[in-house]
Amino acid sequence: MQVLFKIIRQNQTATPRVDSFTLEVDPGSTILDCLNRIKWEQDGTLAFRKNCRNTICGSCSIRINGRSALACKENVGSELARLNQATPAVTEAIAPLHTPESIPTITLAPMGNMPVIKDLVVDMQSFWANLTAIDPYVSTAARQIPEREFLQSPEERARLNQTGNCILCGACYSECNAYEVNPHFVGPHALAKAYRMVADSRDQNTEARLEKYNQSTDGVWGCTRCYYCNAVCPMAVAPLDQISKIKGEILDRKDAQSSRTIRHRKTLIDLVKQGGWIDERLFGLKVVGNSCRDLKGLASLGPLGLRMLSKGKFPLRFEPSEGAATVRSLIESAQTLEATEKHLETLTDAPEPVGG
Questions:
Q1: C-alpha separations of 219 from 133, 153, 209, 213 in Å
Q2: What kind and span of H or E run contains 5?
Q3: Among 100, 108, 102, residue whose Cα is nearest residue 76
């Protein structure tokens, strides 16, 4: 079958351009196979990264029809099938459907959130720097145990499996909306690795780590929960899930007076438990105004409140939802289950008594 590849190319200081290449390919050919053929047969100046060709090294991450993915993992047939399932508007925007008038088209572009060096090669310096910033290694003190290895139970080791699958390909970082608007946010790849350290029974810096990851919007609270990182991760690491676990660990250790971000989460849950949905009047008062303790925050609500009143958008009363009792029961059941699971983990992790 014939496929048209449109590749967005540029040098560091040049304006991006689109070059087109037509190949006769097998549906089972990977995108990396096609890039190799374009370079070998049509344009030797095309630049892209590759290494293992087996979904292990993460080197060949690029954007394929608008989403970040591994070129060695995606093949032509599955990519065209994915496009055919897309809505007509999306399909028309990124790659036309296979019609008698046009051959199937696949558009390739460099990853996002990183400056382009050449063609499909990006500068990943910020990616690596942000990973380093979260201290992605077991604490030295935890390894200083004389006379024997630091042993882990199968259950302790199993907690590291999912995050340990990360191959640092950069796909999640490329699609991160939070990093795009806040360059101080460390990124989903770093926080997924951060949870691996939090979950590691050998590490002795858990409390210090959580304090670090709790800092303003640079850490876990900068995540916008857009789910793009989960959607594009080729190894099912689910970075957003790991970020949520870190948030849970922080919330377990902090009260509502710790910070506005902590107060935001705890107040939201409390108000939903009470009324089935959020009482917007109390939400601003409790979170921003800290229940009248933060006078500056309380004053900041004044202009917004007046604008809402003038436009008839300020709720004068609050009516709980009909299913408030059901919602409250579900939240309490989930909280009880979570507490039970943590208790069982504690019992599992406890050292066995030494016989005498």
A1: 10, 30, 11, 5
A2: strand 2-9
A3: 108
Give the other-Cβ count within 10 Å of 101's Cβ.
6
Length of the chain measured in residues: 356
- Determine contact, residues 237/169, Cβ cutoff 8 Å: no
The half-sphere exposure of 228 on its side-chain side, counting CA atoms within 13 A, is 21
* Mean pLDDT value across the chain: 89
Q: Which fold has domain 2-118?
A: Ubiquitin-like (UB roll) (3.10.20)
Question: Strand pairing partners for 2?
Answer: 24
Alpha-carbon span 237 to 163, nearest angstrom = 5
Distance CA 179, CA 227 (A): 13
Instruction: Domain ranges for the chain, please list them.
Output: 2-118, 124-253, 260-340
- For residue 3, which phi and psi values (nearest 5 degrees)? -135, 135
Alpha carbons 3 and 98: distance in angstroms, whole number: 9
pLDDT digits (tens, 9 = 90+) for 279-326: 888 988 899 988 888 899 889 999 988 998 899 888 888 889 989 999
pLDDT, one tens digit per residue, over 114-133 is 999 999 999 999 999 999 99
d(CA 298, CA 118): 50
Q: Does residue 211 contact residue 262 with C-beta atoms inside 8 Å?
A: no
CATH 2.60.40.3880 for domain 124-253, yes or no, is no
Token pair recorded at residue 29? 């050919």
DSSP 239: H
Residue 42 to residue 38: CA distance in whole angstroms: 5
* Distance separating alpha carbons of residues 12 and 116, to the nearest angstrom: 6
pLDDT tens, residue by residue, 248-289:
999 989 888 888 888 988 899 999 999 999 888 898 889 998
Sign of CA dihedral 175, 128, 55, 38: positive
Q: What is the structure's pLDDT at 145? A: 65
State which amino acid sits at residue 4: L
Distance CA 247, CA 226 (A): 16
